[in-house]
Amino acid sequence: MPEILSRFSFSSTLSLTALTLIGASAAMWLGVGHPLLLLSIGAVVAGVLCVARAPWLAIVAIVGVEAFVLPLMAAGIDRGPITLASFALGIIGAFATLIKGVPQTRIIVWATVAVTVLLLANGIMVGLMSLPFEQLLAGIRIFLTPILAGIIGLGAVDSTRYRVLRFATIVIGFSFFAALYETFIGIDGLISLGLDYGTNVRSYYGELRAPGLFATNYSLGAFAGVMGSLAFVWWPSIEIGINAAKWRIVAIVCGVGCLILSIYRTGVLVLLVSIVLWTLFGRGKGATARKSIATVSGIFVVVYFFQSGLASTASLIARQSVWSSVIENHGFAWFGNGLGFAGSSSISRFSAEEIIVDNYYLNLLLQLGVLAVLLFIPLLVVGAQLTVKSSSISGLQSGYVLVACGVAFVFVDFWEYTSAMSLALFCVGAALKVLSSSAVQPSFASAK
Questions:
Q1: In 42, 141, 260, 398, which residue has its Cα 20 to 30 A from 92's Cα atom?
Q2: Quick check: 16 and 48 in contact, CB under 8 A?
Q3: Closest by Cα among 306, 278, 305, 303 to 293
Q4: What is the span of the domain harbouring residue 97?
């Protein structure tokens, strides 16, 4: 079986992954005894075998499900089964990576696994006592998926990294053209397609905040910020050549276009912080020219930011009020209130109470209590180490994006944009592999 799977083309493996998602969803919808149930299960088995052989396909599934969800919602199709199927593939991909072994990054892998297991055990035990099961399950999926992507990244080879970045470029390209069309038909046109104003359709002083093919403009903007950053600061350090440059240009242009059309400030913030860090620490062929371009681009973005009114501090003041209210109403529990207690998991029809935080550090403290520090500190330490060492080792620049996401956590629950964070942590995992192969092991001891 491995010999057969190894001969599959890129398009064949993508097709099988898509077939798995469809098959898993169909298996959940169909009743026992339905004639198509066996076919659906067969599709699931085929896809699981593919992901076990090529774990990077799980990243394709995770990103793809969230990136093309709007057409499903417009058609009235429940995305829940497909989302759970992609999460299951992420678990399989992470286990396959661990089983295959990543000896150069053993400390990183098992430290991550140990911390994740501890946090999961705490969050699940507390959640089972206080939260509806569906809300807890959603919380587990949202918390765990980016970590699974990071583990898969630890086993990524060069061709794997290129394929994931190309797929992400296709995703952002489709959403860019979709966002252009949405801007053309306007708010009324989107509502006429069956989308809900205030959920999928949002506006900023009467101007549409286009969602592209994502569920919301927030998800599109977050993904565009991460993808644009990776294309600008990391991709050039791992792949050179005219063909790679063409892909990067498409990713940057479409990413910036999606940021403008989605009117999402936090995505712009991620891009700007990544570019600033790269300007300070980046090295490599053509770095001077790219830094000049980055500086000019950054000035243009800042000017646009202020002229468009996006630099208003009103929302930040409102967020501070929300944070104070959350702390006052829910206090602080040493072991948290369970995974899914706050954030997007709390706004479904299954949730006990809607708790919006707009600060992922506070969000996770509410969910996991003081143990949340076990996640915050290693992430920030790894981001800082990759950033500092990127001045002498090529291929570590995805650390800039991780630091930028850490800044974004202050203002929104950025971790909960699953496609964006999964892509970011996959690339961070790949950078950690580069770092470890250079005989420089990141130390988690400094996080103690």
A1: 398
A2: no
A3: 278
A4: 1-101
Query: In this structure, how many other beta carbons lie within 10 angstroms of the beta carbon of residue 303?
Result: 10
DSSP-assigned beta bridge partners for residue 266: none
3-state per-residue secondary structure call for 214-225: CCCHHHHHHHHH
Q: Is 166 exposed, middle or buried (0-12, 13-18, 19+ CB in 10 A)?
A: middle
| Residue at 52 is within a domain | yes
- 82 in a domain, yes or no? yes
Closest CA relative to residue 79, chosen from 230, 222, 214: 214
CA distances from 105 to 140, 229, 389, 406 (A): 25, 25, 16, 23
Residue-wise pLDDT for 265-323, tens only, equals 899 899 989 988 888 887 655 556 566 666 666 666 665 555 555 555 556 566 666 67
| Separation CA 448–CA 446 (nearest Å) | 5
Residue type for position 261: L
3-state DSSP assignment of residue 392: coil
Can you list the positions of beta strands (E) in 205-256? 207-209
Q: Tokens 């101007």 identify what position? A: 207
- pLDDT confidence of residue 295: 64
How many Å apart are CA 171 and CA 214, to the nearest integer? Answer: 10
Query: Is 34 inside a domain boundary?
Result: yes
Does position 41 have pLDDT exceeding 70, yes or no? no
Residues 6+ apart with CB under 8 A from 251: 165, 168, 169, 172, 173, 227, 228, 230, 231, 235
Round to whole Å and give the CA distance between 61 and 129. Answer: 32
- In one-letter notation, the amino acid at residue 163 is R
- Condensed to tens digits (0 to 9), the pLDDT of residues 331-368 reads 677 888 888 888 888 887 777 778 888 889 888 888 98
141-to-69, 128, 429 alpha-carbon distances in Å: 17, 15, 19
